Every structure is written in structure tokens, then in C-alpha cells.
Amino acid sequence: MAHHHRLDEQRGMNEAATTASGRVRSHRFSNRFAGLDPYTPADAFLEALGGVEPDGGSVDGPMLGDPGREKVADADAGIAFFGQFIDHEITFDPTSELERRNDPRGLRNFRTPALDLDSVYGGGSEVRPFLFDDRDGAKLLTGAAEPTPTDEGAPRAARFGATDLQRNRQGSALLTDPRNDENLVISQFQLAFVKFHNRVVDYLRSGGGHALLGDDEDVYDAAKRLVRWHYQWLVRHEFLPTVCDRSVLDDIEATGRSYFLQPDDPVSIPVEFAGAAYRYGHSQIRDRYTVNDDARDVQFFPGPAPENVDVLAGAMAGEDRPPAGVVEEETDRNLNGFGPVPEEVVIDWRYFFDHEPGADGSTAQPCRPIDTAMAPALMLLPFISHGPASLATRNLLRGKALGLPSGQAVAERMGIDPLDNDEIPLPGETTYGEYLRSVHRGAETEAPLWLYVLGEAAVQEDGHRLGAVGSRIVGEVVRGMIDADGRAYVNEDPEWTPTLPRPVSEGVDDRYRFADLLQFATGPAPDGLTLTAVDGDGSGDAPDTPEGDRTNGEAVLLEHAGSGPLSLGGYQFDYGEQTETVDALEEPVAPGERIVVYTGSGPASTDDVGARVVTFDREAAAIDDGGEPVVVRTPTGEVIAFGEYGG
């Protein structure tokens, strides 16, 4: 079934919006180099440059990468998907067409040009009530969770919470932006940010972050602020230095932005960024990924395996669509989106971002380099129902439709020595200049801006990051969006640094990494409650255990190690096949206070227990054998703590 990225226009959306600081944000795109002549080769030329065609029993194309010799870059594989997440945050253009020229000033951007996570929060509960949990108004909804915290072999996300977004009965994710479900990795990224928000809520309420609540700030607003600020920090201090030339970023820091989103400009998205430079990330996508310990070599999109080029050739000959039966059994497992996430391909983020920064090497697989070679998976997109199925072709046609100048013209306008077409490498040990001569266009001296940015990265940075032109466009636009937002940390608190736990980086260095956010988001809810012991037989771990009375002596011992009051009402104690829920307590549990939860009625007198006592008044013990787990959950079902009876 075809999927279309469609969004109804919202009431109140007009030509410009205003941030809290008063800066105008345009819902139109802009053209920074409108004075340069557009580069407008024939559509047929661009379709051939970005497409593939049968070649005997094989398939060939000027930008088709070789799946048998896939190169790797320094960056972790997850950086490409984080870049995609940012793109969906700031741009959504469902109105432009590939087949005709589009005036950037007439195109509406259906996203706010700010790193404000509106794709996660959707304007709040009054605008998008389906995103929020009615059981706890400060939290966001996920799909149903069946966590297995004691299964150490499962991905971390599966051990401590939901493994999928909330979906309707037809399997469609309930999102502000449907594009964040177009592949499984970006879908899991969206889920990670939802869970990150919920973990921050718990951390603020009663965990170690209680002091992070601002004056007159409720828990939801404080959590949203902290989530946004940590996200912006990662964009500025981890993402940009990974994908851009650091010398260009240093120059932007020292002298300001020279071309894009300058201080007096309305904040809009330049088409040189959206239609060309920021599409560099497509070249970083691999054909196959290791997803978790048990799911390796998983294809990115469904379809013929990349090495089955004869089948792929037949697919391309069949009107750019795979004929029936080309999906082999081994390729049924893939990372295509727009549907429920299968249990066997839940993402283990260790394979996408390094989780052991102090060790040699990385736990993560690398991404592909930024170059002109596109993974075969992207040359036959499964969710395209109209127009070319090759992503490369679509990018080239879009650049022409937006009236973009050539890469050489932009470089010269920036005062950068441009690359000659014979310096722009293409796959197969050839160059763009040689390709032009092979199609009788040898006199051509210009290249499409998107192709130029890719080739420049390959020549100047060996594909590890963007080159001079690409780094300038991406660095200035992304930095400009952060600097223009009055609510961003750089404006509200310029000296601020990340304040949430660093479970990966702590003890290694002072950096806050992607892995810190993901580890915190996918772990137990950090409300400060810790399980210190499970007394499954009344042996005496619990205070004043009734002698010889296993039922009334069976208990779970906990301690509140957080910094804020904790309300235990509604917390669930899961004893395997039996679950008990704590009734509302008269007073919240204070920091440092101990809690003893008895399965039965507990001791005859609790005066000398020295702890808060909770009883379930069961008539039989709940723990039968040694090794049985006890899992403590929040009222919304999130895992807080767990332990096992030693027997």
C-alpha cells in the first residue's frame, strides 16, 4: 500500500510566526542566492544521472554504489538518522512538484524552522491530545509495553519499556509528522525522544533532578525545556562537529554567519540547504544494518538483495517497480516503516552510537561516507507511488525545480575555489567530467549543487564529513536556527551545560553524547526508588519478620534515593504471574526514607520497623522459588526497579 506524507493546514498558520523573543519565523522557504542563474539541465539527463538501468544480467547507474565494496566513514551509523530526525523537525514541503519550476517564496513549510521538537510535542495537549497520557498529564504516550527487565539478552529498550510508538488499529503511528515512521530506525528515534521526555518527568518529580525545576515551572514544562535543551546541545556540540569541517564551524563561531540566517533576516529555511546541502545524509545510508544481537545483516528496505543485481535489473525494467516474487525469503526482514515494529528488530542503540567511549574502537557500526555513491536500497524506494523511485533522481530533479544554482556558482559566490567536474568522483573509479563526456556533454562546466556537495566531501574530507561549501551551508543554517530561538539555551542561559545523568560518559570525560541520552531514555524510570532486597521466605531481611510465617514475612525492601517527595499510590508490584497495586498513601515518601512492602499483613506491630510499611494482605505467599523476579512499575507501567529472590 502506498503511503503519502499528508498534513492538513492548521488554523492560525500564516505567513509568519513569532517566538517568545519576538523574532519573526517565516513559514515560507527562501533563496539566499537568488541572483545566481539556476542550473537547469534537461530532466532526461538528471533521470539518467540519478537512475539505474539493466546492463545485460546486471544493473548499472552513474551514482549506484557497489554493495559488495561498501565503504565506511568515521561517524557512527546513527548520525545519518539523527540528521534525518532534524530534517523532519524543520522542513516539510508537501506542495512542491518535481515536474515544474517552483518559486521558493511560494512554498509553505509545514514545520517550524526551529529545533523545538514540535514533531514530539505537537503544540501541546490542547492541539494534539492523542500524544499525551491521560493517566499522567505530564507524560507522552507510547505503544503498549511488556518490559522484561530480567532478560539481559534483550535490547535495553525492550527490557524497560515500550518498543514501539502508539498506533491505531490499522498499524499507523499516531504522530505529528508521519515521516518519522517511514523507516524503522527513525521510528525508534521518535520513540526514544518520547521515552526521554517521560524519564525526565520522573527524574524531576522525585529523582535526583528535583532541584532542576525552575521557578513557577510545572513538571511538564520543565521536562520539555530540558529535553529541548539537551537536544539542541547535541545538535550543536556533537552532530555539527561530526558532519561539518571543524575549521568552518570555528569560523562561524568566531566571526558569525556570512550568508545564511543572519541576525536581521526572517528565520526561514534556505532552499540551498533543504534542496541540496542537507540531503548529504542520503549517501550515509547503508544497505544493511546490525540491529541487535540477534538481528544482523538486516536490509534497510524490502526488495531484492543488493547482490541479486539480475533481479534488481528486472525490477527496474518493470516500470521502476519490483515484479511479484522478487522479495526473497531472506529479505523479508527489513527496516521499512509505516507499520508495527516486529519484536525481533527492536533497535539496540549500541549498534548505532558508541556506548563505550573510553574503549578502543566503537560499539557502533559505521555509516557510509559522504560521497556520490548511493546505496542500492535507495535506488528503489518502496513507499514511492508517483514519479521516480530512485532517491538520487528525485534529489536532482528537486534541485532543478527549486531553481538552485550549480555547485561551482555557489562556491565562487562564497569565495571558495570551486572543484572542476573532473575532480568530482563518481562510483567505479570515474569522474563526473568523464561521465559528461560519455553522454556528449563534455563542454559542461557546472554540476548540480547536491552532487557537488557530495563530491566535495569525498575530495576534501575523504567522505568523513562535509567539505567547504557543504559545511558552510549546513553549519550556518543549523546554528542560525538555534541562535534565533529565544527559548533556546544559548539565549535563555548561555552558560548552561547538560544537567541530566550521563550514564555512558560519566567517569570518561565531560562530554554529553548521543549514547547518554539514549541510555537514560531506554532505562528504568529514574524516580529515585531503589530495590535493596527481596525477602521471599521470611528469613529476616524484612524488619521484625513474623517467625515461621512465610506469607506475612515475605517482603520487598526499597529505599527512596531521590531528592523529591515520591507518591507511591498506584505503583505496581509484579511477582511474575501475580500483580498487586499500592493504594494511595497519606503522605508521600521522603528522600532517604525506607519502604517495606509485605505480601501479607506483615508483623503484628509496625512501630519498631523503622520504615514506611505497605501491606497487600494476601493470604498466600507470592514468591514460590529462588530466582523468581519482582518488578516494580509506575502507575503507567514503566519499570522502576527489579530484583530476584535468592532462595
From TrEMBL:
UniProt GO BP: response to oxidative stress
The principal localisation class reads secreted
Q: Where is the signal peptide?
A: none
Region of interest called Disordered, as start-end residue ranges on this chain:
1-24, 143-162, 526-551
State its location(s). Answer: Secreted
GO MF annotations for this entry?
Answer: heme binding; peroxidase activity
User: Which CDD domains does this one have?
Assistant: An_peroxidase_bacterial_1 (cd09819)
Ordered alphabetically, the record's keywords are: Glycoprotein, Secreted
Q: Which SUPFAM superfamilies match?
A: Heme-dependent peroxidases
Identify one Gene Ontology CC term for this UniProt entry: extracellular region
Instruction: Give the matching InterPro entries.
Output: Haem_peroxidase_animal, Haem_peroxidase_sf, Haem_peroxidase_sf_animal
Annotated Basic and acidic residues bias: 1-12
Q: What Pfam families does the annotation carry? A: An_peroxidase
What is the protein's given name? Lamin Tail Domain
Record organism: Halolamina pelagica
